[in-house]
Specification:
This protein is mostly helical. Helix content is 81%, strand content 0%. The longest helix is centred in the N-terminal third of the chain and has 34 residues. It is elongated and about 50 Å long.
Length: 145
């Protein structure tokens, strides 16, 4: 049986690849390429957050009755990452390589920890709780490319 959340896991990998490409461009101080790849990464991340926050989380909360559990934590982490994405965009515009790379390291840690929690806790819980729901995340979870 296909897991409902499989497209979201694939989306994590897609976002990770875009992030690495932007970081590589920053390492080379190729700010035009960095901006292009960072913008693509940001669009993919924000789309991913939107799918989770507008489709998956509400469905999970309705099915389980848990509104202050894992989805509340994931929303808070999304907010932290949105703030960091905003700050990183400003650093790219200013061409501040060391600041970008420092923020990039922080964001990478946030993403790794966040994705582990989603993939090992929330997604399996969602797959179980929503198995009979008929929700199809494949259409909503197509990453921005």
């Amino acid at each position: 049986m296909d897991q409902l959340t499989a497209p979201l896991v694939a989306d994590h990998r897609h976002c990770d690849a875009l992030f690495a490409t932007a970081e590589d461009a920053a390492q080379r101080t190729d700010w035009a390429a960095c901006r292009e790849h960072f913008d693509a990464f940001t669009a993919a991340m924000l789309h991913h957050f939107e799918v989770e926050e507008s489709v998956l989380f509400p469905a999970f909360e309705q099915a389980t009755g848990m509104t202050m559990g894992p989805t509340a934590m994931m929303r808070a982490e999304h907010s932290q990452m949105r703030d960091l994405l905003h700050d990183m965009a400003e650093v790219i515009a200013a061409g501040r390589r060391d600041d970008y790379l420092g923020m990039s390291e922080t964001l990478l840690l946030y993403m790794q920890q966040h994705n582990l929690k989603e993939e090992n806790v929330l997604y399996p819980m969602s797959d179980q709780a929503l198995a009979a729901s008929g929700i199809d995340l494949r259409q909503q979870a197509v990453a921005c490319e």
